[in-house]
Amino acid sequence: MENFDALQADDTSELIVQFRPDSEIFVDEIGNVISRKGADTGLINDLLKKHHATIKPIGSKLTTGKNKPSIEFPDFFVIRGKGNLEAIRQKLLKTEIVDSAYIKPPAEDPEFQE
Fold it and tell me: Which of 8, 31, 19 is nearest to 99 (CA)?
């Protein structure tokens, strides 16, 4: 078993998660992950609470049709936290509703050459 203690996140670490489009994932007003199609999101919510992490959608849309407005569910979400994002990533990848997950590399200052 791998030791993920060395991979602790700093204040700017982000985990980018892509959910399966057919699960129609959204985040409610208190930060719970919910599937409109009834997919099991319990493990995801437990992981977020355990690691004191937050999740937010990347680019959701509200569109208007002829009869009523509809929401286009985002496929990508960002998880931010100070906990062990690598451990969260590994567990998310074992769920049926996560297609991919990666830790966004930290921003670096460009090196200027004269």
Answer: 19
What angle in degrees, to the nearest 10, is found between the helix axes of 42-50 and 85-92?
A: 170
Cβ contact 33:20 at 8 Å: no
Angle at 100 between CA 51 and CA 95, to 5 degrees: 65
Residue closest to 81 by CA, chosen among 52, 109, 102, 47: 52
pTM for this structure? Answer: 0.73
Here the tokens at position 38 are: 């009834």
Among left, alpha and beta (phi > 0; psi -120 to 50; other), residue 22 is alpha
Quote the DSSP letter at residue 75: S
Task: Report how far apart the first and last C-alpha atoms of the chain are (Å, whole number).
Answer: 47
pLDDT digits (tens, 9 = 90+) for 25-38: 999 999 999 999 99
